[in-house]
Amino acid sequence: MAQHLLDAVVLGSIFTLFALGLSLSWGVLNVLNLAHGAIFLMGGLTAYVITDGNDLPLVVVLPAAMLVSGLLAVALEVVAYRPLRERVGDPHKAELPMMIASVGAAFMFTAIGVEITGNMPVGVNPAVFEVSGFDVLGLRVTDLEILIVVVALVFGGGLAWFVARTRHGRALRALAQDPYTCGLLGISPARMAFITMFVSGAFAGTAGVLLALQQSAIEAHSWEPLLLKGFAVIVLGGVGSVYGTIAAAYLLAITEIVTVSYITPSLRDAVAFALILVLLLLRPQGLFAKTAWQRS
Amino acid sequence: MSAPILELEGVKVWFGGVKAVDGVDLTLEEGRLYGIIGPNGSGKTTLINAVSRLTPLTAGRIRFAGEDISTAPPHVVARMGMARTFQAIRLLPTLDVRENILLGTDHVLDGGDGGSGRERSRARRKRAAEAVDEAIERLGLQAVAHERPGSLPYGTQRRVEIARAVASGCRLLLLDEPVAGMSQAERDEIAEVLRSLRQQGLTQVLIEHDLRMVLKTCEYLYVLNLGTNLAEGEPEQTVSLPSVQEAYLGRSHAGA
Amino acid sequence: MIEWFDSNEALIQSALAMSVLALSVQLALHAGVFSLAGVGFWAIGGYGTAKLVLEGWSTAPALAVMVAISAVIALAMGLILNRLRALYLAMATFAFVLIVQIVALNWESVTGGPVGLFAIPVTITTPVLVVIVALCALGIALWERGRSGRMMEALREDEQLAATVGIDVRRRRVVVFVVSSLLGTVSGGLYAMMFNTITPDQAGFGLITNVLMMIVLGGISTWWGAVVGAFIVTWLPEILRFAEDYRAIIQGAIVLFVVVYAPDGLVGVVRRAGALARRLAGRRAVPAEVAAGGTAE
Fold first, then answer.
1. Does C114 map to a domain?
2. C-contacting residues of A 19-48, CB under 8 Å?
3. Domain membership flag for residue C14
4. CA-CA distance, B226 to B204, in Å (whole number)?
5. Which residues of chain A make contact with C81, given a CB cutoff of 8 A?
6. What is the pTM of this model?
């Protein structure tokens, strides 16, 4: 049972990274970025591609993946989201076209993923990270798992700090409220949007690499259930609340592991989906209502 | 002397800690042109939203043509004959002027009581078309009837909104700052429209900041301050009351 | 000509069935109800009809029963989800679609699990299919014009305004939700009756993606745009055959491009070309109501 808890913590860490990225694009830029999952995929695939035949350590591979994913997200902002916002004018009316654009992008990226993987699960070169396991208090833990948890908490904490304490963080919060206010802080909303999307993508890419290493396999469609779970997490935690998202991510992971271990494995994904439905009906603002993006 | 068409008793609208409307009483008689004025933040727009039922009441009662509408949903009240305009122009951009006006009739006019479903439907369409044509005529919109509102001058757009209300055959028209942002010429245009509608017996309530406009068009004023009644009466007199002046000056001094 | 129809019959049938699903989502979006539930009902209609047909039921009764069952479910859902708006509703219906898919994947005794249902007898002919699809399209076309069309514009553009002109917004949204969902059921049912198998992987994220593409490529604002889009997307793998493995990449890129730069899809392009041609021919621009496809009464 404690082993299960451990699994949940690792899973929750992946959820955390993924969901924080999603929270940024939705909470700050109002875009339901359905391509987030595909960007996650591209992160993992970057790791796969650059280490195919080369032994590169994680310390090189992870930043590379983060860079690629971040840039892909920025590309979407430049090519699709920003032009759409400008054309449509009203930010609410732009939400649907932006979502559809993200679907097209997801389709594209997935297709590229299928090309790269030959539509089969592929494994990242294990030389990236030599996994060694050891026993702690009777539980089996690997150093990779510890790394995943650490990365999630560090990145999450870092994001929270960034948003609360830095000028760019304040600009980000301002942008969430209204682009004009952001401009008043001396940072152009456009630039802030790029930074936001870059970070959003980079977080997804990080999750992608780490999960690829943990599961020793990536498959072009593996991101699909994760995408909706990401939304479940941010709806649960409250869009825009970093700490809420982190808490919700671990909560969902625990629920999922419990379902798999004690109820039935086949309902694994259904848990998240049912959760979304229930939450949206009962408390759309999430369990932790205070939204960090909008706190003054 | 007609029965009051709108009565407000002790109406309060609170949003959490914010007491936007905190005890307002009004009695409006049919056929007259009323004005509601007050400094910024006095609760005028919230009051109109409450009357048109877009906002729930925290306390108090509203009676429209004798019926208690305090908890009625907005569409019911619209069908009873209440129409309104908003501070921003709210026309549908994808429809042309005529269709926008038709929208005012779509859900409030019926085809009478006799005949089959199809006959009633045809009768309804006929009534609607006539009401729309008449409204277009009255508001001088013949030239732009087939244009999309987005390309029209502000004053004209406002006239389309008013035409929409007129075509609906409403008994009460609420106008929330209809001339905000308009040139003096456009304001005069709208003032003229309101006066002519008054002559045709339509009850109107005008919320406005432009005191000139209010003095030119309204027959009776209610002054609100801090969400409640401050004064009421004949426009010129009411506006020169010391309490009213103080409310306005005090506000503008504080820069609110 | 007949030969072309014969050799492409499967594609035509598929496109026709998909048109109804595209109409389902187009209708909902047109009226401002961001519901993708039709895709979930596609699975419900598809599997349900398949099971009935496997038991020996014929076309009309099977469809009728599935529509009735779906109506009940959709009504309940519509009422419950009614308070959700825009992206939140989209997400909830998205979740619904995926839940249906999971049920299809796991309820082996009923749905056949991952393998799905097979050996479904073909119980519908192309002419009947065309009639049913035409009826659906006609229904939507009529609904989206005139008075009800204006109501949908109001629901989508400005709900508050809609309420103040007498539109019972809550009720109308539920009605749209239910009809949209039922169109999904019909589409799935038709599909099941045309092809021998139905599997869970046909009814998830991929289908949502395809339907959205159909609407985007054809044009969001009109019903015929949805139908055109359905045909385009169904035919796209054929058209893009030269690109082989890169087909899907190109398809995604096309959608991205169209959404951003040609928002009204093919219909928009045609309209603009038409307006341009008229201008070039020296005639005055056509009045707004005609160009809008006749929403006036």
1. yes
2. 32
3. yes
4. 23
5. 280-281
6. 0.89
